[in-house]
Design goal:
The structure holds 3 protein chains of 3 kinds. By secondary structure, chain A is an alpha/beta fold. Chain A is 35% helix and 17% strand. In chain A, helix 5 packs across helix 6 and helix 15 crosses helix 16. Chain B is mostly helical. Chain B has one domain. Chain B is globular, with a radius of gyration of 14 Å. Helix content of chain C is 20%, strand content 37%. Chain C has one domain. At the B-C interface, helix 1, strand 1, helix 2 and helix 4 of B face strand 1, helix 1 and strand 2 of C. Strand 1 of chain B pairs parallel with strand 1 of chain C.
């Protein structure tokens, strides 16, 4: 059996404050009270503030999450923060709207001539311009104002009017309504951006990718197969992976972890040599907790789509190994108590290979940025996870109760991801993990994710999965 | 609290009456516990759902409160809740819920 | 304390989930009439 390794990982953010109004929560609140739109608009932050935001710099790999500095982050600019980082970039909205239009093969997005031109010019100068052929934006030029009067949704509104629009793909099919396609196109475009960065940063031939597994939150489909579609192959096409096929893995926020385990298994079994796993950003979650930010006089920080891409391949003697002999999984019989979940995801797989909780250097778990969740009363999600892990270690007599704080500091990290659950659930840490296990001092890193299956009302079950990345000893 | 959850609570009250009804919370923070407890006693303080300005006056507890723990088989409690009891700030959560009960009683 | 009572369980994914709370209450002589687990992340 071939040893599967994490060859590369990349991450991208699309700063899209103008799309917040299309987020699920803001859209509902605006429908209830149209004056909410102006309050949101007045509390957006500019691109420079988003670039200088320490958690965003951690997302693109410029700084380790443990080195982000003290909170609050939102009211200061991180020294030296640049748009491009070691793992990807933070893309401004004008360019991202162009990317969405390039992702749209059905001419549903219309851009004003000015927006199309400024977007195309910026994308021409982009290091990934070869991937996206910005010249094609000419065919996206139209009259968004007129489109909206005919029922399209506004995609971009400036002081002078509507500069971008998106029409429904079908007049009766609720799965192809404009706002649904906006979510899917934003996901496709941001996912393709992350995958293209991965290929470019690691000097990989797009044609060397055999398979692309999509693990985004969006369900693509039509009225006969609501979630039956596939973003994996759509993203493969957009990133020029002409030899690849693809499919999607769905599992709420946990999806990337099973997607990586499946990718690693395909490589281990010799079915494919190189499998990419890609998750695009979640438009419905933009501005999800905007009320908390407004209440606390903060800018609306959920203004960026997060996307991650990873490449799993055959052993190259250097890249971190994915330990397929120690996969944690939450079983149907496991139960939903916190201890049962942690046992299934952490203790059981470690036991399988004779390791303990303290044998893992870093745990990548739910790394939601607490500046997004705390103002709305949802607390610090990663800290809670790390305290739970530490409490497990106390119960197993591996550390003393007084050492909980130290365990959390040593084995955990502050959250830095947007509240797009799949991206936040360990996936955002992959590039950091790879660096830590090659150039850094880490030997073992556990990636774990949990999914709230009960939200879909087909079962009361939770789910979760974990895997261990280990330094490659050659 | 999610507006949909508020509606299902309202429906349950209509179906079962308030007399014998108890709400048991599992919220992770004192802030969230306070909001949830207020929602089912004096009304949704966030004005987000159907329980806004609705005084249900239900009896509310949190699973991490000492008096609740005392009423449950210790082994079972440890197995189902023990890890979260070790992780979360139980006393602060208990105080938040007790305050909501006291506010109701003083009206 | 709970004998003969009807219980509404409002658990939270990030706190104590409702099935775990319901399991605790099962032997106290009460009836769980509603179970919801909220998820805010």
């Amino acid at each position: 059996m071939a040893k599967p390794v994490l060859i590369a990982a990349a991450a991208a953010l699309a700063h899209a404050p103008g799309l917040i109004a299309l987020g699920s929560k803001p859209a509902r609140e605006i429908a209830r009270d149209p004056s909410v739109a102006a309050r949101i608009h007045a509390n957006l932050r500019g691109f420079d503030a988003a670039v200088g935001y320490a958690p965003n710099q951690a997302f693109i790999g410029s700084v380790h999450p443990r080195a982000m500095g003290p909170r609050p982050h939102f009211n200061r600019i991180l020294d030296g923060g640049q748009r491009f980082g070691p793992d990807g970039e933070i893309m401004p909205e004008t360019e991202f709207l162009g990317l969405m239009a390039l992702a749209d093969q059905f001419k549903l997005i219309r851009l004003s001539p000015q927006l199309a031109q400024s977007s195309a010019e910026a994308l021409m100068r982009h290091p990934l311009h070869d991937f996206f052929d910005p010249g094609k934006l000419r065919s996206a030029i139209g009259d968004p104002q007129v489109e909206v009067s005919r029922g399209a949704i506004p995609l971009h509104v400036t002081d002078t009017g509507i500069a971008g629009s998106l029409a429904a793909g079908h007049h009766e099919d609720t799965n192809l309504m404009a706002h649904v396609l906006a979510e899917n196109l934003a996901c496709k475009a941001s996912g393709a951006l992350a995958l293209a960065h991965l290929l470019k940063l690691h000097d990989l031939d797009p044609a060397s990718i055999d398979y692309v597994i999509g693990c985004s939150e969006e369900a693509v489909g039509d009225r006969y197969q609501r979630g039956g579609g596939n973003l994996g192959k759509a993203i493969a096409e957009m990133a020029g992976c002409v030899e690849a096929s693809g499919a999607d893995v769905k599992n709420f926020c946990a999806a990337p972890v099973p997607a990586i385990v499946i990718a690693a298994s395909l490589v281990a079994a010799g079915v494919f040599r190189r499998v990419a796993v890609v998750g695009g950003g979640s438009l419905p979650k933009l501005g999800m907790k905007f009320e908390g930010h407004l209440k606390n006089s903060m800018p609306i920080l959920e203004d960026s789509l997060g996307a991650v891409a990873a490449l799993i391949g055959e052993d190259d003697g250097r890249s971190p190994v994915i330990r397929l002999d120690a996969i944690g999984r939450h079983r149907v019989k496991s139960g939903s108590s916190a201890e049962a979940i942690m046992d299934a995801l952490v203790t059981a797989p470690l036991d399988q290979i004779g390791l303990k909780i303290t044998s893992i250097d870093d745990y990548a778990t739910e790394l939601h940025n607490p500046e997004l969740t705390e103002p709305q009363g949802s607390g610090n999600v990663p800290e809670r996870n790390y305290r739970m892990l530490a409490a497990m270690a106390v119960r197993q007599k591996l550390i003393a109760r007084e050492e909980i704080g130290r365990f959390v500091a040593d084995h955990g990290m502050p959250g830095f991801a947007p509240t797009q659950g799949h991206v936040a659930s360990a996936f955002c840490y992959l590039a950091h993990a790879r660096r830590g296990l090659t150039d850094g001092g880490a030997d073992r890193i556990m990636m774990m994710a949990k999914g709230s299956l009960f939200l879909g009302m087909m079962t009361g079950q939770s789910d979760g999965m974990s895997f261990i990345l280990e330094r490659n000893r050659g | 609290m999610d507006p949909h959850t508020q509606q299902t609570i309202l429906d349950a009250v209509q179906q079962h009456g308030k007399e014998n009804l108890i709400v048991m919370l599992g919220t992770p923070s004192p802030e969230a516990a306070a909001i949830a407890a207020e929602t089912v006693t004096t009304g949704d303080p966030t004005y987000a759902g159907p329980l806004a300005e609705t005084r249900l006056g239900l009896t509310v507890y949190h699973i991490l409160e000492e008096q609740v723990r005392a009423a449950i088989d210790p082994e079972l409690y440890d197995q189902q809740v023990g890890l979260m009891a070790d992780t979360l700030d139980g006393p602060a959560i208990a105080a938040a819920v007790a305050q909501a009960r006291a506010a109701l009683a003083s009206e | 304390m709970f004998a003969g009572k009807k219980i509404i369980v409002i658990g939270e994914r990030d706190g104590v989930a409702s099935p775990a709370i319901a399991a605790c209450l099962a032997a106290t002589g009460c009836e769980v009439v509603l179970m919801a687990t909220e998820c805010f992340v």
